C-alpha cells in the first residue's frame, strides 16, 4: 500500500474496501485484456503457421506419388487418384480438411462438400462478391499465400468468413489448400481466456499440450514423407534446399569444412535397358544403403535425382572426404547382382568440393563445383573419385 497517497489512509474502511475491489477488478480486467490480446495473437499465428505447414506437407505427399509416376510404378491417373484419396482422408481437428482444384477452377476434392467435385467454379462468387477460385489461382501461382473469403460450414448453407492458405503444385497444375473459419478461431480464443483460473484452466492447458503433441507428431510424419525419397528412403533434393541455410550457418561455427560429394552411377541407363527397371531400382536401393552405412551420423545422404546421389557433411580436410568416397566406390564395385542367373555389377564416379565462403556465393555453387569434378571423373574413364 506504500504507493497510495497519505489521504487514502484516512478513508473509511468501507471506502477502502471498495477502492481495493476496484483496483483488483481493474487489475483482473487489465490482465484478462493483456492475456486475451497476447494469447489470441499467438494462437492466430500458430494456427496460420500450422495451416501453411499442413499445405507444405500435403505438397510433399503429392510429390511422393509424382515420384511413383516418374519411376513408372504408377500411371499418371493412378498417381493422381491415390494422391487425392490420401489427402481426402487426411482430415484434422473438428472440421479441418484439404481441398484441391485445378487452375481452371474445377474442384478435384472437397471432403465436406462432395457434391461440388467436378464442377467448374471459376465464375462462382462468395457472399461478398469475390471470385474466390480466380483469387486462389492468382495467389497460388504467385508463390502461394492466404486468401480471405466466405464459405459454408459442414451441413450448412450459410457462408462464414474464412482464410485459407493455398499453394500451386506445378507438375500437375493443382491448387492445394486448407483453411480456418474465423469465428471458430475467435470462439476458441474466448474459451481459452474464460478458462484462466483453477482446475478448468489447468485442464485446458493439458488439452492444448496434448493436441499440440499429436499435431506435431502427424506434422513430423507428413514432413518426413515430404522430404524422403520413396525408393531409397534417402533425403530428397527438396530437403537439401531446406537444410542448406542451416548447414552454411553451422559451417561458420566449426573448423571442419562443409563438403559436397556428388555421386553418379556409371552407365546406369544400360542397367535399366539390359536388366530392366526392377533390377535398376534394386541397384539404386543397394547403392543408397552403402552410402548411408559409410556416412557419419551427422551427414546427410540425398538422392539428387535418377542415379545421382549427394552426400553432405563436415570433414576435417579434403583427404578425409576422399577416403569416405573411395570406400563407397570400392564397396559398390564389389557388389554383385543377379538377373536370371546372369551376374552383373556397377561402378560409380564422384566429385568432391569443399565449401569456400570466400568464393562460393551459396551452397549451390559448391554443388556445381562438385558436379564439375564428377564430370571430370566421367571424362577420365569413370569408376574414380576426383576432388
Unreliable sequence segments: 1-14
User: Over all CA atoms, what is the radius of gyration?
Assistant: 29 Å
What's the pLDDT, averaged over the residues?
Answer: 83
How would you characterize the largest beta sheet?
Answer: 6 strands, mixed
Please explain how this structure is put together:
This protein starts with 12 loop residues before the first helix and ends with a strand. Strand 4 and strand 5 (174-181) form a beta hairpin. Helix 1 crosses helix 4 and helix 1 (13-70) packs parallel to helix 5. A six-stranded mixed sheet has the order 6-8-9-7-12-13, with helices on both faces. The chain has a five-stranded antiparallel sheet with strand order 2-1-5-4-3, with helices on both faces. The chain contains ten helices and 13 strands. The longest helix is centred in the N-terminal third of the chain and has 58 residues, at 13-70. 26% of the residues are buried. Mean pLDDT is 83; it is low at 1-14. The chain folds into two domains: 40-227, Beta-Lactamase (2-Layer Sandwich), CATH 3.30.450.20; 235-386, Alpha-Beta Plaits (2-Layer Sandwich), CATH 3.30.70.270. The chain is an alpha+beta fold.
Entry summary:
The protein is α+β, with helices and mostly antiparallel strands. The protein is built from ten helices and 13 strands.
Amino acid at each position: 500500500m506504500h504507493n497510495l497517497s497519505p489521504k487514502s489512509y484516512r478513508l473509511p474502511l468501507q471506502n477502502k474496501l471498495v477502492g481495493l475491489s476496484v483496483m483488483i477488478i481493474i487489475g483482473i480486467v487489465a490482465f484478462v485484456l493483456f492475456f486475451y490480446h497476447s494469447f489470441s495473437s499467438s494462437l492466430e499465428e500458430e494456427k496460420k503457421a500450422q495451416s501453411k505447414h499442413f499445405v507444405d506437407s500435403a505438397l510433399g505427399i503429392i510429390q511422393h506419388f509424382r515420384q511413383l509416376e516418374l519411376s513408372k510404378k504408377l500411371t499418371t491417373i493412378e498417381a493422381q487418384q491415390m494422391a487425392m484419396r490420401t489427402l481426402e482422408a487426411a482430415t484434422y481437428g473438428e472440421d479441418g480438411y484439404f481441398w484441391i482444384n485445378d487452375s481452371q477452377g474445377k474442384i478435384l476434392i472437397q471432403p465436406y462438400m462432395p457434391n461440388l467435385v467436378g464442377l467448374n467454379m471459376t465464375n462462382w462468387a462468395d457472399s461478398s462478391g469475390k471470385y474466390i477460385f480466380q483469387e486462389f489461382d492468382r495467389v497460388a501461382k504467385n508463390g502461394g499465400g492466404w486468401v480471405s473469403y466466405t464459405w459454408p460450414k459442414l451441413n450448412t448453407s450459410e457462408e462464414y468468413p474464412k482464410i485459407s492458405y493455398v499453394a500451386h503444385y506445378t507438375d500437375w497444375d493443382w491448387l492445394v489448400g486448407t483453411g480456418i473459419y474465423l469465428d471458430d478461431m475467435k470462439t476458441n480464443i474466448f474459451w481459452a481466456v474464460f478458462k484462466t483460473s483453477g482446475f478448468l484452466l489447468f485442464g485446458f492447458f493439458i488439452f492444448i499440450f496434448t493436441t499440440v503433441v499429436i499435431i506435431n507428431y502427424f506434422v513430423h510424419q507428413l514432413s518426413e514423407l515430404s522430404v524422403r525419397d520413396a525408393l531409397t528412403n534417402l533425403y530428397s533434393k527438396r530437403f537439401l534446399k531446406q537444410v542448406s541455410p542451416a548447414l552454411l550457418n553451422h559451417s561458420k561455427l566449426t573448423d571442419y569444412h562443409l563438403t559436397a560429394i556428388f555421386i553418379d552411377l556409371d552407365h546406369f541407363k544400360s542397367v535399366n535397358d539390359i536388366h530392366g527397371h526392377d533390377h535398376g531400382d534394386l541397384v539404386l536401393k543397394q547403392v543408397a544403403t552403402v552410402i548411408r552405412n559409410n556416412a557419419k551420423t551427422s551427414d546427410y545422404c540425398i538422392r539428387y535425382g535418377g542415379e545421382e546421389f549427394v552426400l553432405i557433411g563436415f570433414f576435417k580436410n579434403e583427404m578425409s572426404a576422399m577416403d569416405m568416397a573411395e570406400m563407397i566406390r570400392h564397396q559398390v564395385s564389389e557388389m554383385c547382382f543377379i538377373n536370371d542367373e546372369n551376374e552383373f555389377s556397377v561402378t560409380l564416379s564422384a566429385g568432391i568440393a569443399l565449401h569456400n565462403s570466400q568464393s562460393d556465393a551459396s551452397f549451390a555453387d559448391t554443388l556445381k563445383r562438385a558436379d564439375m569434378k564428377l564430370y571430370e571423373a566421367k571424362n577420365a574413364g569413370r569408376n574414380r573419385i576426383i576432388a
